[in-house]
Design goal:
The protein is mainly alpha-helical. It has 4 helices and no strands. The mean pLDDT is 80.
Length: 151
């Protein structure tokens, strides 16, 4: 015997059908992408502040090899985080002037394609954000491990 009443099961079935519909799938994907976009923006700002406050003040004191590693890692990290943020903005907001679909079949096809595009872009941006965070962390560690000659 089920712990749920027939009424509860019918309502759950209606909710599942609503959630599986293309417009709802698109709405959910856009909402998720917007959350990741906000996260990436905050993360980029936080990492910038942490590195500026906790990193070595003057990279010129470091030996040549570690200094260039830090510069390369930071440059790559911030480019990755900037690109990931741009991808997330692109996922959430379409280019201006896009034609509104008036055909019902084409609208449903668009919603399915757009939801998939948003999910793919969000996944790519998440990985880019992770690699960016790891690069900033590695750069910060290098400044602590190889601070340069002690005078």
């Amino acid at each position: 015997m089920s712990p749920f009443s027939e009424h509860e099961l019918r309502e759950a079935d209606l909710r599942v059908r609503t959630m599986a519909a293309p417009p709802e799938q698109l709405r959910a994907a856009l909402q998720q992408a917007e959350g990741y976009r906000n996260f990436l923006t905050t993360l980029t700002g936080l990492l910038t502040v942490v590195f500026v406050l906790k990193g070595q003040e003057n990279l010129s004191k470091m030996t040549t090899g570690p200094r260039w590693w830090v510069i390369g890692l930071l440059t790559g990290a911030f480019l990755l985080l900037l690109a990931a943020s741009w991808l997330m903005v692109s996922a959430v907001h379409e280019p201006p002037g896009r034609k509104v679909e008036t055909d019902a079949r084409r609208l449903l096809e668009y919603e399915v394609e757009r939801a998939e595009s948003v999910r793919w872009t969000t996944g790519l941006a998440r990985w880019m954000g992770l690699v960016g965070v790891l690069a900033v962390s590695a750069a910060s560690l290098i400044t602590w491990i190889f601070p340069g000659p002690v005078t």
